[in-house]
Each structure stands twice: as structure tokens, then as C-alpha cells.
Specification:
Layout (H helix, E strand, L loop, with lengths): L11 H10 L2 E8 L2 E8 L1 E5 L2 E9 L12 E13 L12 E16 L3 H8 L13 H9 L1 E16 L6 H14 L2 H8 L5
Helix pairs in contact: 4-5
Length: 196
């Protein structure tokens, strides 16, 4: 990721919060045919200043070949919005996009226990799904159809581009315009950049 100093985020608590809130990530690996990517839910554990991420793919997915030591990139996107140049008090201006994004680099390892990852995914289930409640035969058949992995972070990159390069008056105008459009998430992110 091209990291601009004005927008770099290093606060691991904030980065963790983004991943937890937007845990449908993009797993990028190198395969025999080039680069490949899969969109999938990711479960996250914090280990000091590193992250342990778990997920799974269909057993037939060619990316599974990378699960034994292959390098990977997991990408997470947070709130984002188009920013109109007409919203700025300071002119001239050009259109842009404000966003937050996290890239986690690491090495893939096969995961032989499916339950921790499935348990964390089930936290979103209003019916309190528990994989252990499935019939053993069905559960084993399901496990044969998927390949679970874990990735320990070796590099964490994060960027919160939330109009920090604009003056306070411009940021206040953008916040008001975003709220008028109903985009409270990005408005709050920009508001957090204002001096206290």
C-alpha cells in the first residue's frame, strides 16, 4: 500500500477495531496462474503487537496450495466516501475519496482446528449457531469440503485518509455534507481528526 505520512495509522487498537467491524476481507496469494484473491470472513486474535487471523476456503480453491508457508496479503476496507470539491471552503479543489484500509502481510499455515474460527464467525449469528450441535457425520463432511488457514502478521499497514490534509474549516464543511447524505461513519472518522 502506498502510505502517505499524513494518513498513516499505527494504533493497533484502532486497526483491530476496523478489522473486527469490517471482517469480510480479501485474501491475496500467488498461484500457478499468477495472483489470485478470495473474499471471505476472517476471525482475528491479538497477540501483543501481532495479529493472528483465521479463515477458510473451499477445498477446491487453488489458493489452498499456499497454505503451507506461502506469503499472503489480507486486505480490509473500512468506511469510505466520495468527497466533492464543492464541499470545501478553500478553492480551487479537486474530487477525492476518503477511506480507511488495513493490509496484513504474513505467512499462511494450515489450520487443523476449525472450531475457533467458526466460533468467532458464529458471534454474528442471531440464532447462536454452534458447529458442535451438528450431527457428527454432517460436520465431518463439511470439514472435508473446506481448508482452514491461519496467518500471523509479519507486517501491518494501515491508512486513514480522512481529510487530515485539509484545514479545519474544510473538514467541518465535509462533515456537514456527509451527514446530510447520511454517511455518519465517515463523518465521525473525519471528526476524530479535529483538534480537541
Amino acid at each position: 500500500m502506498y502510505l502517505r505520512p499524513a494518513f498513516v495509522e499505527t494504533d493497533l487498537d484502532r486497526i483491530e477495531a476496523l478489522i473486527r467491524a469490517h471482517n469480510f476481507g480479501l485474501l491475496v496469494t500467488r498461484t500457478e496462474t499468477g495472483m489470485d484473491a478470495s473474499h471471505l470472513p476472517i476471525a482475528l486474535w491479538r497477540e501483543g503487537d501481532q495479529f493472528l487471523l483465521r479463515g477458510h476456503l473451499a477445498a477446491a480453491n487453488p489458493q489452498c496450495a499456499a497454505f503451507d508457508g506461502g506469503q499472503a496479503l489480507l486486505i480490509f476496507s473500512g468506511p469510505h466516501a466520495y468527497i466533492s470539491p464543492g464541499w470545501y471552503k478553500t478553492q480551487p479543489a479537486v474530487p477525492t475519496w476518503d477511506y480507511s484500509a488495513v493490509h496484513i502481510h504474513g505467512t499462511l499455515e494450515p489450520e487443523h482446528q476449525h472450531e475457533p474460527m467458526l466460533d468467532q464467525m458464529a458471534e454474528h449469528d442471531p440464532g447462536h449457531f454452534d458447529v458442535r450441535d451438528l450431527e457428527t457425520k454432517y460436520r465431518e463432511m463439511m470439514y472435508k469440503g473446506i481448508r482452514a488457514f491461519r496467518l500471523r502478521s509479519t507486517r501491518i499497514e494501515a491508512q486513514w485518509k480522512m481529510s487530515q490534509n485539509r484545514g479545519i474549516e474544510d473538514r467541518l464543511a465535509v462533515i456537514a455534507a456527509l451527514r446530510a447524505e447520511g454517511n455518519e461513519a465517515v463523518a465521525q472518522e473525519i471528526e476524530a481528526t479535529l483538534p480537541r
